[in-house]
What we know:
Layout: H1 2-24, H2 32-36, H3 42-70, H4 73-97, H5 101-116, H6 125-128, H7 139-145, E1 155-156, E2 160-161, H8 164-176, H9 187-216, H10 220-236
Antiparallel strand pairs: 1-2
Amino acid sequence: MVGHWGRRGLKLAAVGLLAGWLAGCASGPPSAEALAANDPFETTNRDTLKLNGKIDRYFVIPTVAVYFTVVPEGGRKMVHNLLQNLNLPTVFVNDVLQGEAQRAGQTLERFSINSTLGIGGLFDPATNKFHLPGHGEDFGQTLAVWGVGEGPYLVLPFFGPQPPRDAFGQIADIFLDPTSYIHLKQHIWWDAGRYYFTLLDLRGQTYQQVQEVQRSSVDYYASLRSLYRQLRNNEIRNGRPDTRNLPDF
């Protein structure tokens, strides 16, 4: 168990150190535009985005290409289904913490159906047969529902856009995930494999969209920042309309 929790402690420390590094190495005072965008570390964030671009170009994209070549579409779909099913217990906990009883019930139904009829989550009869669409939740969204602000915009090495609220949420989700408390003999390989295929699955599904943003943007960094916030805010609202700034009649 020491080694099992030790890896999670190392991840927690790594994220904390990365956030501290970004906060401490901003070069010079932020511009008025950066402050207006709640991005006081813009210079460092831009440099980190370039670093992530190199990691993407020389490691992630070639790996995704091999994955798409070696694993047929049906196999990739099963990997996606399995990863989504493994994440459902964490989604359920966050549904409950947000007071979303109906969504929590739906998540529990999906997990029960896909873990049994879906052969451990390899297939998705909850969607295809029972018309129970899935949704995502994480503790960063839960904090936002509780009224916690995003904090300054940050781009972390490897992790990408991770404002303090969302970075802390990712760490908290480790402890909210019931599978974190299951000790497997080969847990190191299991955890590494799960994280690796999650990265491949996510990158494979978003590759074309990211490429389109890069091609169509005059300022890719600013476009990515805006897109991240739009998507994140939509997730926090669970797709509901934003009624905060509507005029009073």
